[in-house]
Amino acid sequence: MTLTGIREAALILCVGALSLGASFNVAEIHLDHPDAHVFLTQGISESPMIVILDGYTLRLYRNGPDSPPTTITLPPGATAMDVSDTNDDGIPEVVVVVGTEIHRFEFSGDSPPSHAVLFSLNSVLRASSPRPYPRVIVTRVEDTAVLALPTAEALELWSPLGDLFARHPWADDGLDGGFTAASFSARAYRPNQAGQPGTLELRLTSTANATPQALGHEAPEARLFRSRTGTPLQARDAALRPLPAWPWFSLHTEADNPARVFFAFDPPGFTDTLLRISMAGNAAESESSPLRRRYAGTLVLPDGKTPDLNADGFSDIVLWSTPRPGKSVQALLRAASERDWPVRITAHLFAVGKNRHDSRPSGSLTFRAPLAWFLKREWGAPVRNFRFLDVDGDGASEIGVSTGPTKFGVWRYAEGLKSAPDYDATFPDEITGIEILKKANPETGADLITLRSSGNLYILSIP
């Protein structure tokens, strides 16, 4: 199918078509720019929809990724945009900053969107980027949609009709009064430990702290932090430091409970993981406790919410490991001649009655990763595109991971992990990145998987 020169193909993959373990629904979308932005609309009464900002081309999939999108070409000079409901009709509009003008595109049924200039304002967003970039512009104050537009002097809140709703001047030093920081130094760090390949990563010698402040209103209600997972480099360094410096994540996946799981990579090899659990969330309590447990394998750091493989409300842990080649010359030469090498992933459930994670794996899977993945010391190597996700909306986490340059598989936990993935697919080009669109299906709460290649976007879901 061809739409204005852009290929939009909805594919139902089946066994034998692309080497699947089970059927995926896959929408294949051609991208003009490999760094195109993909996100879901939020905070509107209409079902969330996928939005793709590809250069100046904006595509909105109002009826799902396998249906033709509504396509808008943003005006020349656009630098910022947002998609949200600005007039309380339950349908999202597109707000765009073009120089000093604030534009809006409105939708009505299947008709082409109407386009109007709302008002003019000398916002700093007019020169914020060389091409359109997603920004949070539409927000709500006292259940009223307003446009949050920063100027050189203040953060101004405007109604879509062009009336000034509120104005919050910046502090004299240009910073929020709740922001404080000690002097620090920074240097570029290679290879990346936290960022994706090709991004600039800086290592700072001190940390800035900020106290959130509501603009002209009462401070927001304090909530417990869910984690401080850091990076693999920080987890490696933590083992040689006092426990308060260890990264951690919440033991409970949903409830506001102070219990924490502190972790570090065990020296000198840093291939095994050390865990300490504090039920009170107090590092000092665990510091005096001898209960430091060692697990064989490297912890897969959560990319947000921690995994709960059996949906019992407790965070589980997932580790990866790989066998070391022998020390003889023959063994090393044999290993070097291999094009791939085995990777083992193990899952360890939290044992509620024992207040610890099971020392023996509750399930495991093995695949062979390209040898080149072991030579690049990027985050998670050789585990690529690893994500915890919920493909069916049942509340239990699934494991998704690339098992080859063009392959991706998803495993469900059911009293263990199968040797083969529950869902997998092979694509015509190499996968370069992954994003999870959380709870994209409003009926089931299921996530969508978006995989990137150099020229395509693949959106995966189960039937």
3D structure, described in words:
This protein is mainly beta and 463 residues long. Helix content is 6%, strand content 40%. It has four helices and 38 strands. A six-stranded antiparallel β-sheet has the order 1-2-3-38-37-36, with no helix packed on it. A five-stranded mixed β-sheet has the order 11-10-9-8-12, with no helix packed on it. A five-stranded antiparallel β-sheet has the order 21-22-23-24-25. The protein is globular. The protein starts with a strand and ends with a strand.
Structural descriptors:
40% strand, 463 residues, 4 helices, mainly beta, 5-stranded mixed beta sheet, 6-stranded antiparallel beta sheet
Major beta sheet summary: 6 strands, antiparallel
Measured on Cα atoms, how large is the radius of gyration?
24 Å
Terminal Cα separation, in Å? 22 Å
What structural class is derived from the secondary structure elements?
A: mainly beta
Biggest sheet: strand arrangement: 1-2-3-38-37-36
What percentage of the residues does DSSP assign to strands (E)?
A: 35-45%
Number of helices: 4
The gross shape turns out to be globular
Percent helix range: under 10%
The low-pLDDT segments are 1-20, 174-183, 206-224
Number of beta strands = 38
Rounded mean pLDDT score: 79
Topology, please?
Elements (H helix, E strand, L loop, with lengths): L1 E2 L2 E7 L12 E6 L6 E4 L9 E5 L2 E5 L8 E4 L4 E7 L8 E6 L2 E8 L2 E10 L12 E2 L3 E4 L2 E7 L3 E5 L5 E6 L9 E2 L5 E3 L13 E3 L4 E2 L16 E2 L3 H7 L9 E3 L9 E7 L5 E7 L4 H5 L5 E3 L2 E2 L17 E5 L7 H9 L2 E9 L1 E2 L4 E2 L5 E8 H5 L8 E6 L8 E7 L2 E5 L11 E4 L6 E5 L10 E5 L3 E6 L2
Parallel strand pairs: 8-12
Antiparallel strand pairs: 1-2, 2-3, 3-38, 4-5, 5-6, 6-7, 8-9, 9-10, 10-11, 13-14, 14-15, 15-16, 17-20, 18-19, 21-22, 22-23, 23-24, 24-25, 26-27, 27-28, 28-31, 29-30, 32-33, 33-34, 34-35, 36-37, 37-38
